């Protein structure tokens, strides 16, 4: 007898009519027509059952702080950084925890159960690290929170960042971060990449750097990051986030850069919503999107995970906690509109990001954690198109959030009385 049995599921790989059995918080069977009894049975009704959404790039210390201390009137990255610099000295541990927990509630309601959050360690008080380490423990039953020691003001440019970053790692922060393009010179940026990779190698940690978040095609710290990854033996443990300068680089240089990244087994984490909002601010027209070269990265076999980055904070006044919003924007901005393209984007907010974060027991195979989401959609492409309701959100075999299916009632002569948006799924040619 199983604890939970989900019947008639469609899986992201296209299998239909699949049952998923759960015992002791793990998936015990994935096959059609499971006949055993179960303490709870959920009929998926042919809808898509997905592993949880995973956000590999977020700033939980800043989330939901929009308007503090004032609004970002220019909407630029630099004004956002300046605003955060004003807000940071006033932050209290209690307020940080309250905002972070509220955001995690929203995330879970969207089927998001793993987040990598960068934690600003530029303030020597390290109140941000203290708060989010506590949040990590509080949300552990329903969300995996991975923390990155992030020197927002620059590892060398920030007057106390070097010592503070080391202390944050000593406190238990998981990943080494950096922001080489924000150092005072290109040389300082390159030095910071080397120093931070050395720290990660010495401590046995992963690396995730804000890298080349600029329109300047000569900002090429990702090349240095690839080289230092190989030098320190960090292959498979390093991600470059944003990488927006790649949008503006010439094609010949990129033809050299991408193989270097692949050789280093690096991952790439674009953040489509905020990259498109913040980049190209010095352009008139033509105006650059500022989003890195997602199709080419994928073609090279470089793991791509899409991040949300911000929700209602000094940099970005929008955001819903829904990774399908992120994938939806990426499909449009990259012009990746085929069914296969959309499946790849769905992977970029699920399995790819789980791989980048090194999540254990993730997936829909036997033995994995019984973490999954039932969506009001029939396949990954439709999920990105609709950004549908999460009918059930399941953690370790227990339903922790649910939303009623979206149904519109019509009063039209001769037409149906009710409309289900998921019923409009096209029949794809094989």
TrEMBL record:
Domain Amidohydrolase, by residue range, is 40-400
- Could you give a single Gene Ontology term from the biological process aspect? cytosine catabolic process
Q: Name one Pfam family in it.
A: Amidohydro_3
Q: Does the keyword Metal-binding apply?
A: yes
What is the designated name of this protein?
A: Cytosine deaminase
Q: What is its EC number?
A: 3.5.4.1
Q: Which organism is it from?
A: Pseudooceanicola atlanticus
Print the keywords alphabetically.
Hydrolase, Metal-binding
Class of enzymatic activity (EC top level): hydrolase
Q: Which is one GO molecular function term here?
A: isoguanine deaminase activity
């Amino acid at each position: 007898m199983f604890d939970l049995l989900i019947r008639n599921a469609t899986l992201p790989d296209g299998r239909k009519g699949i049952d998923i059995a759960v015992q002791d918080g793990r998936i015990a069977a994935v096959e059609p027509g499971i006949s055993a009894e179960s303490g709870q049975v959920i009929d998926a009704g042919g809808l898509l059952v997905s592993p949880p959404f995973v956000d590999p790039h977020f700033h939980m210390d800043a989330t939901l702080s929009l308007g503090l201390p004032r609004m970002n009137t220019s909407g630029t990255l630099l004004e956002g950084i300046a605003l955060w610099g004003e807000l940071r000295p006033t932050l209290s541990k209690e307020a940080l925890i309250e905002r972070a927990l509220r955001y995690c509630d929203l995330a879970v309601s969207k089927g998001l159960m793993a987040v990598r959050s960068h934690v600003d360690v530029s303030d020597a008080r390290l109140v941000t690290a203290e708060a989010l380490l506590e949040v990590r423990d509080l949300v552990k039953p329903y969300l995996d929170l991975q923390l990155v020691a992030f020197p927002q003001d620059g590892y060398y440019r920030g007057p106390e960042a070097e010592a503070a970053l080391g202390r944050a790692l000593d406190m238990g922060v998981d990943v080494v971060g950096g922001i080489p393009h924000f150092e005072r010179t290109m040389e300082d940026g390159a030095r910071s990449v080397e120093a931070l990779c050395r720290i990660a190698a010495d401590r046995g940690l992963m690396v995730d750097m804000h890298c080349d978040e600029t329109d300047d095609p000569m900002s090429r710290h990702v090349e240095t990051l690839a080289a230092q990854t190989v030098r320190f033996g960090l292959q498979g443990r390093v991600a470059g986030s944003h990488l927006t300068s790649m949008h503006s680089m010439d094609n010949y240089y990129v033809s050299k850069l991408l193989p270097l990244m692949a050789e280093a087994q690096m991952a790439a984490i674009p953040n489509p919503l905020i990259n498109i909002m913040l980049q190209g601010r010095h352009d008139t027209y033509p105006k650059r999107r500022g989003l890195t070269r997602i199709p080419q990265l994928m073609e090279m076999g470089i793991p791509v995970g899409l991040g949300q980055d911000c929700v209602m904070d000094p940099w970005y006044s929008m955001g819903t906690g829904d990774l399908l919003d992120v994938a939806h924007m990426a499909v449009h901005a990259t012009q990746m509109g085929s069914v296969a393209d959309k499946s790849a984007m769905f992977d970029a907010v699920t399995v790819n990001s789980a791989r980048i974060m090194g999540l254990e027991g993730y997936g829909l195979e036997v033995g994995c954690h019984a973490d999954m989401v039932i969506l009001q959609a029939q396949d990954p492409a439709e999920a990105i198109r609709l950004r549908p309701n999460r009918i059930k959100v399941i953690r370790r075999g227990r339903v922790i959030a649910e939303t009623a299916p979206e149904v519109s009632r019509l009063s039209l002569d001769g037409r149906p009385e009710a409309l289900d948006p998921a019923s409009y799924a096209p029949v794809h040619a094989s």
